[in-house]
Every structure is written in C-alpha cells, then in structure tokens.
Amino acid sequence: MKRDVMAGQASEYHRGDMDIHEQVATFHLVMGITKWGSLIIAASLLFLTLWFCTPTGFFGAFITGAVVLALGIFFLRSRGDAEH
C-alpha cells in the first residue's frame, strides 16, 4: 500500500512548472561576486607583488595594477545582447 502512494506522488510532477526566479537570481549573484572578486584579487596581487618584490616601485606597480583592473572591467562587464 505504501508503494502505491509513492508512485502516485511521482506521477504528479510536471517538469518546468516550478518558479525558479530566486534560484536564478542567487546564481547570478554568486557568479558576479566570483567574477568581480577574482578580478580585484588578481589586480591586488599584481600590485603588491610588483611593489614589494621588484624594483618597479609604488607608482609603477599602481599604474600596472590599474591597467589590469581597467582591462578586466572592460572585458568582464555584462553585455546586453548576449543572453543565454
């Protein structure tokens, strides 16, 4: 008898009927934090490495880090035409 109840519940499932707007929003938030956080960490590591581990100095390291940050923002920004 228990087997019949479980089989009845499984047949009530309809693929694609669940509202997933919250899951989609969470996914996009996590991907955005990952993308921008990785860029900030990479630019910061480059800046600190050049400043303290090479004779580049503060201004050379700052300019290089700023260029990498600007290029990262340019290439990682969202484009409105590319929807998946």
Taking the alpha carbons of the first and last residues, their distance comes to 45 Å
The run of helices and strands is HHH
Q: What is the count of DSSP helices, taking H or I runs of 4+ residues?
A: 3
Structural class: mainly alpha
> What portion of residues belong to β-strands?
under 5%
Largest sheet: none
What's the Cα radius of gyration?
24 Å
Shape: elongated
- pLDDT < 50 stretches: none
Question: Count the strands?
Answer: 0
Overall pLDDT:
86
Helical amount: over 70%
What is the chains' assembly state? single chain
What do these coordinates show?
- The chain is an all-alpha fold and 84 residues long.
- It is built from 3 helices and no strands.
- It has helices at residues 2-11, 21-53, 57-76.
- The radius of gyration is 24 Å and the shape is elongated.
- The model has no long low-confidence stretch (mean pLDDT 86).
Characteristics:
84 residues, mainly alpha
Topology of this structure?
Blueprint: H1 2-11, H2 21-53, H3 57-76
Provide a quick synopsis of the model.
With 84 residues, the chain is mostly helical. It is 75% helix and 0% strand.
